[in-house]
Fold this protein.
Amino acid sequence: MSERPLSPWQAAAHNVQNHWQQLGPRDRRLLKITGAALGVLLLWLVAVQPALHVLAQSPAQLEAVDLQLQEMQALAQETKALRATPPVPAAAATQALQAASDHLGSGAHLTLNGDRAVLTLNGVSSEALQAWLGEVRSAARARPVEAQLQRGPKGFAGTVVLSLGANAP
């Protein structure tokens, strides 16, 4: 009866088993303790430490998500309120848009063309632009449909295209 040749893995396992049998009880105990310590360390690094890290960060992440949810709910309420308001007549919308644009000063030029308006900006601050958008949206019921803005050292430059009144999308 001839023996089959061992595969490289079987040969390595056989060599390890022979080496283990040749070790004394003290050395075996030391290797078992070392193996257990490495197993505990691996378990800590792979399973426990990442879970503790997630648990430590989750309250801050939940708070941030709650703030975002509150902001989105406030925006949704504002949108509902704006949709519920009656449309502004075209003449009043144009007048409100012109008045709001005049508040921006010499850095803004408004051009009206039917139910569209184009505001050209040059060096307008972000606070002024934000206030203008709020005023235009609430007073003139105009909606921005296109914006091409660039922020520079003196403020925003570019154009904002608005759709006016009841014809706004």
The longest helix spans residues 25-84.
